[in-house]
Amino acid sequence: GQQLNQSPQSMFIQEGEDVSMNCTSSSIFNTWLWYKQDPGEGPVLLIALYKAGELTSNGRLTAQFGITRKDSFLNISASIPSDVGIYFCAGHTGNQFYFGTGTSLTVIP
Amino acid sequence: SQTIHQWPATLVQPVGSPLSLECTVEGTSNPNLYWYRQAAGRGLQLLFYSVGIGQISSEVPQNLSASRPQDRQFILSSKKLLLSDSGFYLCAWSRTAGELFFGEGSRLTVL
Predict the structure, then answer these.
(1) Cβ contact (<8 Å) for B90 and A43?
(2) How far apart are CA B14 and CA B82, in angstroms?
(3) Could you tell me which residue, B41 or A17, shows the higher pLDDT?
(4) SS (H, E, C) A34-94
(5) Is the pLDDT of residue A1 over 80?
(6) Does pLDDT of B15 surpass 90?
(7) In chain B, what residues touch A89 (CB-CB under 8 Å)?
(8) HEC assignment per residue over A2-32
(9) Would you call A50 and B107 a contact, using CB atoms and an 8 Å cutoff?
(10) Are B98 and A96 in contact (CB < 8 Å)?
(11) Mean pLDDT, chain B, whole residue set
């Protein structure tokens, strides 16, 4: 199936720094989703975006649905150690969900 | 509120043995249900999805099968496991708004 282009693949940042990651696709999606996955657990939904141009926040997390409906970004402000994990984007159309390859985030105290 | 559970969490099985992973969703009706496999390299591979009881769509031809005997129950099975079936299996459900919610995952090791 189709995979989304997610970047960067990994990030090593100092605690307190801001983080930005993004996903792009050649296809248009109706919904963009962002997940965080801890080792050995299922991905947890962080933010869902439903309309082109939509900007949504969840605490220190902010995500946007691109105007073209083919991209999305996720920002994390003032990172803390518990932000460590793998972040996935996903695009939804019809009954299908397509996933990015993940961004591994390491926060150095 | 809606919840999703899958079990067992961890499974170690010999090659050639059968497999049954179960998933149930609570607090919603007629959900779309999905089985994914996640390789060590992080990618999520869709195995099966279902839009209703007895309706199963297979995305990848393989050694596995899925069934949906009840509205909120989704089962992943195999008659004879292969070494290549090892991995992290995730059940998920979605609603029409386009959100997808995952279960806790099942780690399968085939020896």
Answers:
(1) yes
(2) 8
(3) A17
(4) EEEECCCCCCEEEEEECCCCCEEEECCEEEEECCCCCEEEEEECCCCHHHCEEEEEEEEEC
(5) no
(6) yes
(7) none
(8) CCEEEECCEEEEECCCCEEEEEECCCCCCEE
(9) no
(10) no
(11) 93
